[in-house]
Amino acid sequence: MRGGVLFVENKDSFSWNVIDLLPVPRARVQVCGACEVRRDPSILARAGVVVIGPGPRDPERAGLVELVREAARRRKPLLGVCLGHQALGLAFGARLARSTPAHGETARAIFSLSRLFAGVRGPVTVMRYHSLSLRGVRAPLRTVAALGDGTVMAVEHEALPMAGVQFHPDSFATPGGREMLAAFFRAAAGGA
Amino acid sequence: MRLESLEGLASFALLAPGYDGPGWTLLRDLAPVSPRGRGARLVFAGFEDPAGRARVFAARRVETVRPALGPDPGPLRTRLDARGHAAKVRRIRAAIARGDVYQVCLCASARLGPATGAEILRRFCRRGAPRFAAWARLPGGPEFVSASPELFFTVDGDRARVEPMKGTAAPGALAELRRSAKDRAELAMITDLLRNDLTPVCRPRTVRVAAARRFLRLPYAVQAVSDVRGRLKPGAGPLEVLAALHPGGSVVGAPKRAALTMIRALEPRPRGAYCGALGLARGPRATFSLLIRTAQRGASDWVYGVGGGVVWGSRPVAERRELDVKLGAL
Question: In this complex, do A14 and B255 lie within 8 Å of one another by their Cβ atoms?
Answer without folding.
Answer: yes
